[in-house]
Amino acid sequence: MNLPEKPVVAQPEQAAFPGVAGAAGETVRFAAVGDLHCTKDSAGTLRGFFAQAAEAADALLLCGDLTDYGLPEEARVLADELAIASVPIVAVLGNHDFESNQPDAVRRILSDAGVRVLDGEACEIRGVGIAGAKGFAGGYGRGALGSWGEGAIKLFVNEAIQEALKLESALAKLRTPQRIALLHYSPIQATVEGEPVEIYAFLGTSRLEDPLLRHPVDAVFHGHAHRGRPEGRTVNGIPVYNVAMPLLKRVFPERPAFRVFEIARAPLVAA
Length: 271
Ligand SMILES: [Fe+2]
Ligand SMILES: [Fe+2]
Known about the structure:
The protein is of the alpha/beta class. It is built from six helices and eleven strands. The strands form two sheets. The protein has a six-stranded mixed sheet. Helix 1 (47-56) links the parallel strand 1 (27-33) and strand 2. It is globular, with a radius of gyration of 17 Å. Residues 1-24 have low confidence and may be disordered. The site of one fe (ii) ion has 6 residues, from loops. One fe (ii) ion binds at residues 35, 37, 65, 94, 96, 223-224, 226.
C-alpha cells in the first residue's frame, strides 16, 4: 500500500474508508478481480470465492482472462460458478478469452448468465458509472510503439488506438459523478513493474491512459500482469489497481483474492 492520498480501497476485514466523495453519501462497495483463467476443471472451485466476494461487496468487477483458452465450455463453467453471487457482475474480456477465436460465444454465455460484459460500453450500478474495454498492448511513454513502417506494425498499433477509443467513448457516456474504469491491459507502467522489463510493452500501453486524462475516474482496475504491482497512479493522480488474481494471492496471501473498493456517492441535492 504505497498510495499516500485518500485511501479508497479496503479489504473486507478492514474498517470502511469514508470514500472519495465524503461520508454523507451512500457507500457502494465493488469487489474487483481479474485473471480467473477458468478451465473445464474449475467446476466447484470458484463458488466459495465468489460467495465471499458477493458478501463483501455490492457488485463484482471482473478484469478479463475470465477463461483460460477462451472456450465456450470454460465460460459455461464460470457462469455456473458465478451463479452463487447474488450481486450485479460487470466484466471485460481479456486476451485469453480470444484464444479460441470465440470471444462472442464467451461473451454471450456470460451475458446470458447475467454478467454485463463491457466492450467500449458503460453501465451504472447504484449511481456509480462503470466504463469498460479490454485494452491492448503497445508500451508506455516514449517507448510506446508508433504507427510507422510495415503494415503489420500499423495494424498492431491501430488495435491499441481502437481500444483506447472504445474506452474514451465509454467514459464519455457516463454522467455520474463517481466513475470507475475497467480494463484488462494496464494503462500505466507502474502496475506492470515486477514483470520482466522485456515484456512491459505486451502488458498494456499508455494510449489507454490518454482517455483517463480527458475523462477522469475515481479508480481504474485491470489485470493481465500476473507478476506486476498492485497499485499505481496515472499522471493525473487516478489510482490504478492491478487485481490479477495470481498477484493478489501473492501480495495479500492472508486475504481473499479480490480487492474491495468503497465509493461514497455524492449526497443527493434536493430539487
Ligand atoms: Fe491472465
Ligand atoms: Fe491477459
